[in-house]
Specification:
Helix content is 30%, strand content 21%. By secondary structure, the chain is of the alpha+beta class. The chain has three domains: 124 residues, 3-layer Sandwich (Rieske Iron-sulfur Protein); 217 residues, Naphthalene 1,2-dioxygenase Alpha Subunit, Chain A, domain 1; 63 residues. It holds the Pfam family Rieske.
Length: 467
Amino acid sequence: METQFSWTKQWYPISPLSYLDSNSPNPVTLLGKKLVIWQDNHQQWIVMDDYCPHKLAQLSLGRINEDGNLMCRHHGWTFNNEGQCTNVPMLTGNAKEIACNSLRSHVKTYPTQVLQGLLWIWPDDSATAFEDCQLKNPATIPECDPDKSFMDWHMTEVPVGYTVSVESTFDPSHAQYLHEGSGYYSPETAVPIKEFSLVGEMSADAGFHLKHSGYNLLNQDMEATRNFTPPCANTTIYRYANGKNHIFQLYFVPTKPGQCRHIVKFIIGGNTVKKKSWLSLLPNYLQIGLQHLLSYKVSDQDLTVMHSQEMIETSLNKKWQKAYFMPSPADLGIVTFRKWLDEFAGGAPSWQDNLETTVKNIDNEQLYDRWHRHTKFCPNCRRSVILLDKVQAILQRVSGLLALLTLALIIISIPAKFALFTTILSIISLLGSYFIDNLKQQFFTSIPQGGLPIIKVYADRPSKSLS
């Protein structure tokens, strides 16, 4: 069957603007194609192929020069916001002009636009791409009160694929079991989903629309809708009897086989009052960084299951209809998404550059790595690490100086209480340094720094007595 859905002729949200560096090139991968994002002197975001036509060096390794052009780090070739070569340093006069005007020295650029704090890319390289992109609108958040946003955009790039990522987000009933111990989620509070149905029909470009009832004692009376807008948007709205609405905007951007970029935002309806705490005394970026640390437990649980699912599905070498057993109404979201993929989109993303699509097994260090997953992208988490590093260095110096002072007080026979006081301060400073070091490591990995390198995704349940 011929694919009716074009994977390249679509708008993809590639990154929140807050995650992009306006002073340096930003490398990114989309559908297997390596791209570079940079901002010119007119504050326009430019996206182009991430290689120099000279010797194929990555342009994202370069820099933005004083003229607002992108300069290749390898030999200094420069390119403007249209991808045209503007300088070949090793040529002069007519020879330089000929080389710069040659189509072989140009770099392919792609349409972009900025909406709702996200940079969107149209990754089609056809001659009509800039005209075609005008005919389609990105899948943005429905109109809502921006002041009720529970969080800013949050982005992670996880080592599991597009299909299993999107599939999971149309499977609400897993939360009570997979995320046990987080918030209200618990098997004891789960209730069967009474209604789960497809509203209208599926289509290649419009995707599909689902509605379902609640799945736990707290939300069993709500009405939920989940709207899949191809290629990667899930707009979920929970409507409660008290009039409150919660919007979950989720994007799953296919970067390469076995890897997917998740961009999410939660918008909570009703009056939300933020409680003041001592955390409000910390720099804002550190507050955000600490909030991001709290999200890793849930995402580690997701990654654990999704990666194992991918590996088993690959090893079985069966179509999903044969590999999955789907007897419950709660499974309708999974089935509907898989059917959309098969019927309209060739069963999987259309990877460019002839990528090997076999999912590879990875070890725990890679699966639970936090640096490549989030911290290296997030300016707030990076700044938090830098601050913690400075605080740790100060505490270490203070501890050393206090230890020397204690020794000096003992040598000159100062009363013991003074030496005891400086000793206590030195120990406190040393313990503070140890605490900061452990906190800092949490921005890099979920694997504990001390003891056995075992990820504890769930808290131990008390064993049942044999009586």
